[in-house]
Amino acid sequence: MTLEIAPGADRDTWLPAHLQRLAARYRAAGLSAAAAEELAEQQRALAGTWTVADVRTDGRTVGCVAVGVADRDGAPVGRIGEVWTEPGHGRLRPAALEWAERWCAERGAARVEARVTGSDPLFDGYAVRGQNRMKELTAASVEQGAVTARPMTAEEYPAWRAQQEDAYVFDMLRAGSHTEQEARAKSAADFARMLPEDMATPGQALLVLEAEGRTVGTGWLHHGFLPGVTFGCSLDVLPEERGRGFGRAAMAAGERAVLAAGDGALMLNVFGGNTVAMNLYTTAGYRVLEESRSRDVSGGGA
C-alpha cells in the first residue's frame, strides 16, 4: 500500500462535504439539527481559506487534509481544519496529520491549532486550550437557588467591562493559547465585535447576580446564539464571594434566565487550565461539545 498526500484538491468541491461532516459531528455531540447546521455554517468563511490536499492510497483518493497558516501579531500559526478518511482507512490519519504539521512548520509556524469535535484520539497529543460545553435545559431540571439575577445598570457597566476584558486576557494566558500581546489584542477585538452597542447590543443580556442581599457575581448571556441555544459568555462569582457555595447557584440563575428568554440549551466556553470551572461544569451536567487544541511543531516536526 502506498500513501500520497496531494495538495491542490478542489476546495469548492471539498467545502460542502466538509460542512456536512462537521454538522454531523455536532449532532452526534448533542446539538439539534438546526443548531448543528448553523454552527457548522459559521465555519464557512474560515474554511474558504484552507489549502486542501487529497489523501490517496494505491492511486485512489480516500480522504482529505485541510491546512492553513494565519498571521497572529506578526507570527505565523498553523491551523488544521480537517483530517478525514473514508471508513476503513482510518489507519492513514496519523500519517496525514504528520504531513499537515510539517506543511505548517515549513511555512514558519511554531504551533498548530485544531478544533476537535467529540472524541478524536488522533489529537490526544495536543494540549487542550479551551472547551465549548453544552447542557439541555428544562424547567424541571433547572435548580432553584439562593442566587437571583437582575439586569445590569448603566452605572455598573464600565467597571464590569474593564474587569471582563482583563479576565479574558488572563484566561488566554493561563491556557497558553496566546502571548500577552496577542491576548490583549484579541480581547479588545472580541469585545468590540460582540458588544458593538455596549449594553444596547441586541440579544445580549448583562446580569448582576445577587444573594443574601448583596452582589455576588455577574453574568453575560447571548440569547439565540444558535437556534434554541444561548451562549454563556460569562457567569462569574466575585473573587471575594468564592468558596461560599455560590458557583452552582450562579449557574442555575443563568439557566433560569435562558429558559425565560425562550431558549432550551446553554453553551459555555472554558479555557484550558481552568480545572475549577471544568469540574463545576462536569458536575452540573455540561458535556464537552468541542475543544480547541494545539501543539508545538517548532523545528519542523510534531
Automatic annotation (TrEMBL):
InterPro entries cross-referenced by the UniProt entry:
Acyl_CoA_acyltransferase (IPR016181), Bact_Acetyltransf (IPR050832), GNAT_dom (IPR000182)
What domain of life does the UniProt record list for this protein's source? Bacteria
Q: Which CDD domains match?
A: NAT_SF
Q: Which residues form a coiled coil?
A: none
Outline the extent of the N-acetyltransferase domain. Answer: 147-302
Q: Which UniProt keywords apply?
A: Acyltransferase, Transferase
Q: Which PROSITE patterns does the UniProt entry name for this protein?
A: GNAT
Protein name (database record)? N-acetyltransferase domain-containing protein
Q: Which organism is it from?
A: Kitasatospora arboriphila
- Cite the source lineage: Bacteria, Bacillati, Actinomycetota, Actinomycetes, Kitasatosporales
